Amino acid sequence: MGNICRSPAAEAVMKNLIVEKDLSDHIEVDSAGTIAYHTGESADSRMISAANKRGYNVDSIARQFNEKQDFKHFDYIVAMDNDNYRDIIDLDDRQKYRNKIFKMVDFLEDLTSDKIPDPYYSGNDGFELVLDLLEDSTKGLLKKVIGDDGRTT
Predict the structure, then answer these.
(1) Where are the domains of the chain?
(2) Do residues 79 and 88 lie in contact, with contact meaning Cβ atoms separated by under 8 Å?
(3) Contact 22, 146 (CB under 8 A)
(4) Cβ–Cβ < 8 Å for 32, 64
(5) Do 58 and 12 form a contact (C-beta atoms < 8 A)?
(6) Sequential pLDDT tens for the chain (153 residues)
(7) CATH code for the structural domain at 6-146
(8) pTM of the predicted model, to two decimals?
C-alpha cells in the first residue's frame, strides 16, 4: 500500500533469488505502493532489520504505482493483498493489462495464506511471517517468470 514494508521486502527477496540463479541480466524487479503517502521514504526500519538478519538488503525508496508507465513496462504486477489487488485492477479500467496482475499468494508453494499481511502494526513476529511468505512465494513467482523451459518469459 505505502511501499515501505511488504513490497520493498518482496523486491529484496526476489532480487536475491535472481542473483542466486544468475538471472540479473534478464529480470528487473521494482516495488511500488498503491498510495503516495510514503513516497520518497526508505522502507520501515523494522522490515529492514528483519530482512538484514536473513541476508536481504532492503534498499528501495517508496514510490506510487504509475499505471501509465508500470503497466506497460512490467510483465508481472503483483499485489500483496486483496485490497491492493482490487486497487490495481481498478486502475486497469479497460482491462488491457489484466493478464499481468496477480496476488503474491498465487505463487506460494509450501505455505498457505490468503494474503501477505501488513506487518506495520503486528510487531516483530509480523515481519518474520511476511518474510516467510515472501521467501516461499518468490520461488513460485520466479518459476512462473522463467517458465517450464527455464528461460525468461
Answers:
(1) 6-146
(2) yes
(3) no
(4) yes
(5) yes
(6) 889 999 999 999 999 999 999 999 999 999 999 998 999 999 999 999 999 999 999 999 999 999 999 999 999 999 999 999 999 999 999 999 999 999 999 999 999 999 999 998 888 999 999 999 999 999 999 999 998 545 555
(7) 3.40.50.2300
(8) 0.93
